[in-house]
Write a structure and sequence with these properties.
CATH architecture of the largest domain: 3-Layer(aba) Sandwich
Number of strands: 13
Order of helices and strands: EEHEEEEHEHHHHHEHEEHEHEEHHHHH
CATH superfamily of the largest domain: P-loop containing nucleotide triphosphate hydrolases
Number of helices: 15
Structural class: alpha/beta
Strand order of the largest sheet: 3-4-5-6-2-1-7
Strand content: 15-25%
CATH class of the largest domain: Alpha Beta
Number of domains: 3
Radius of gyration: 29 Å
Distance between the termini: 21 Å
Shape: flat
CATH topology of the largest domain: Rossmann fold
Length: 442
C-alpha cells in the first residue's frame, strides 16, 4: 500500500491563503485526527469549514475539500486544506499531519500518482509542468491542449495503424493456409508504412513549431563595435536596457532581455563587438560572444548598411554560417537605393518590423501553429524521430523482400515507442526522472 503524502500546493510565500494537499489511503484518518468542524465529518466529496487542532492547541480556522477515490486528481482519497497564507501556519499543519501518519511528498509525486493510477497519461502529466512554466499565453494554450488530452489523441491513430499492420502480419505468419484474409504482401506493407511515415513526419514538424512556441528562441546579436547592436536590443525591447554611446567597445559583457514576438518568447543576447582587440577585458567579452554563438538558436549578424563589407564583417559571417542566422543591414535609413534581397532596419529609429517578420518566416511559424496541439518537448520529439526510423526500416525490409517476421521487428519497435510517448509500458524509474522536475505539491 502506498504512503499518504502531504505538501504545500501553493507557493511557499506569505499570501492571503495557502493550500495543503494530502493524498493516500489514510488521508481521511489523518484529517480526522486534527480537524474539528461543527458539521459532522463524513467520508464523502464535500466542502467543510472548521478548525485545525493539535490536541487542545488551536492552530487555524480552515476550509477543507475532500475527494473520495477514485474521483480525485490522484485517483486516491485526497484532502485539500485551505488555511491562512502564513508559512508558519502551513508548516504547523503539515507537521501535524506527518505526526498522524503522512509523509512529505517528493517533487511531482501527486502528478506521478495520477499517472500511475491511470488518471492521466504521460503527455498530460508533462503538460502540468509546462503550464506552470509557460511564459506566454500561446505556450499556455499548447500545454492546455495536452492537459485536456487533445495531444494524446493526435498520436493514437498512428498507434492503431501500426497495431493493425502488425496484427495482419501475425495472422499471415501463423495462418498461411487461410485464403480469405488480406495478404500482408510487400506492396501492402510499403504503402501502409509510407502513410504512417507521412503522419509521423507531420507530427515532428508540428512538434518542432510547438517547441519554439513553448520554449522560445535564443537569439544572439553579433557585429563589429558601434554597428548598433545595443541600439537593436533596445529597439526590440522597447526600452533603453543596453548602454548606447559613440565609443567603440562600450558593451563588454553580454546584456540580456526578453520580448514576446507574436506569442514566441525571444531570449535576446547583446554581445561585445567582435573584432581584433588588445584590451584584456574587451577580449574576454569577445570570447563570451563567440561561445554564445554555439548555444543559441538564431544568430543576428548586424552589418552597417552605410559601409562596404570588410574583412572583419566576413569573419563574422563565417562564425555564423553553420548556425541558423539572419544578415541584417542596420542604418538602412541612410541608404537611398536599397537592395531588394537585403534585410534593412534602422535600430536608432526603432524600425525593426521587417526583422521581426523575417524571424517568424525563418522558423516557419504561422497562425495554424498556435491553434493545434503538438508533441513538442524534447522527449516526445526524440521518440517520434525514433518511430520514423523504425518505420523506414520496416519499409526498407519489405522492399528488399525480407521475411515478414523480420519486417515485424521494426514495426514492433515503432509500436513500443509510440506507447512510450504516451507513458504506456515504461519503467517506473524513467517516470521518476520526469516527475522529479515538477514543483513540490504537484
Amino acid at each position: 500500500m502506498l504512503d499518504t503524502i502531504v505538501a504545500l500546493a501553493t507557493a511557499p510565500i506569505k499570501s492571503a491563503l495557502g493550500v495543503i494537499r494530502l493524498s493516500g489511503p489514510n488521508a481521511f484518518s489523518c484529517l480526522q485526527n486534527v480537524f474539528n468542524s461543527s458539521t459532522p465529518f463524513y467520508r464523502e466529496r464535500n466542502v467543510w469549514h472548521g478548525f485545525i487542532h493539535d490536541d487542545e492547541n488551536l492552530i487555524d480556522e480552515v476550509v477543507v475539500l475532500t475527494y473520495v477515490s477514485p474521483k480525485s486528481f490522484t485517483g486516491e482519497d485526497v484532502v485539500e486544506i485551505m488555511c491562512h497564507g502564513s508559512l508558519l501556519i502551513a508548516n504547523e499543519i503539515i507537521s501535524l499531519l506527518i505526526k498522524y501518519g503522512a509523509r512529505m511528498a517528493t517533487r511531482g509525486e501527486f502528478s506521478s500518482r495520477a499517472f500511475m493510477n491511470g488518471k492521466i497519461d504521460l503527455i498530460q502529466a508533462e503538460a502540468i509542468n509546462d503550464m506552470i512554466n509557460a511564459t506566454t499565453s500561446e505556450a499556455k494554450k499548447l500545454s492546455l491542449f495536452s492537459l485536456q488530452g487533445e495531444t494524446s489523441a493526435k498520436i493514437k491513430p498512428l498507434k492503431k495503424s501500426i497495431a493493425d499492420l502488425l496484427a495482419l502480419i501475425d495472422v499471415n505468419i501463423d495462418y498461411p493456409e487461410y485464403t480469405d484474409i488480406e495478404e500482408a504482401g510487400k506492396d501492402k506493407i510499403v504503402t501502409d508504412t509510407e502513410t504512417m511515415l507521412a503522419i509521423t513526419n507531420d507530427l515532428i514538424e508540428e512538434g518542432r513549431q510547438g517547441k519554439i512556441i513553448r520554449e522560445g528562441i535564443k537569439v544572439a546579436i553579433i557585429g563589429k563595435p558601434n554597428v548598433g547592436k545595443s541600439s537593436l536590443l533596445n529597439a526590440l525591447l522597447r526600452e533603453d536596457k543596453a548602454i548606447v554611446t559613440d565609443i567603440a567597445g562600450t558593451t563588454r559583457d553580454i546584456v540580456e532581455g526578453e520580448i514576446n514576438l507574436h506569442g514566441i518568447a525571444l531570449h535576446l543576447f547583446d554581445t561585445a563587438g567582435i573584432h581584433d582587440a588588445r584590451d584584456l577585458v574587451e577580449n574576454l567579452g569577445i570570447d563570451k560572444a563567440k561561445k554564445l554563438i554555439d548555444e543559441v538558436d538564431l544568430v543576428l549578424v548586424l552589418l552597417d548598411a552605410s559601409k562596404n563589407v570588410d574583412d572583419e564583417d566576413k569573419k563574422l559571417l563565417l562564425l555564423a554560417q553553420d548556425k541558423k542566422h539572419l544578415i541584417i543591414y542596420n542604418k538602412g535609413d541612410l541608404v537611398k537605393n536599397k537592395d531588394g534581397d537585403k534585410l534593412y532596419i534602422s535600430a536608432l529609429q526603432k524600425d525593426t518590423s521587417s526583422l521581426e517578420k523575417a524571424i517568424l518566416n525563418l522558423f516557419a511559424i504561422d497562425e495554424t501553429s498556435y491553434a493545434r496541439p503538438s508533441l513538442n518537448n524534447a522527449r516526445q520529439l526524440g521518440l517520434l524521430r525514433k518511430v520514423a526510423l523504425d518505420l523506414k526500416q520496416a519499409q526498407g525490409d519489405a522492399q528488399n523482400g525480407l521475411p515478414l517476421d523480420i519486417v515485424a521487428v521494426s514495426l514492433q519497435n515503432a509500436y513500443q515507442t509510440v506507447c512510450e510517448i504516451l507513458g504506456e509500458n515504461i519503467q517506473p524509474d524513467f517516470t521518476d526522472e520526469i516527475f522529479a522536475r515538477f514543483c513540490l505539491g504537484k
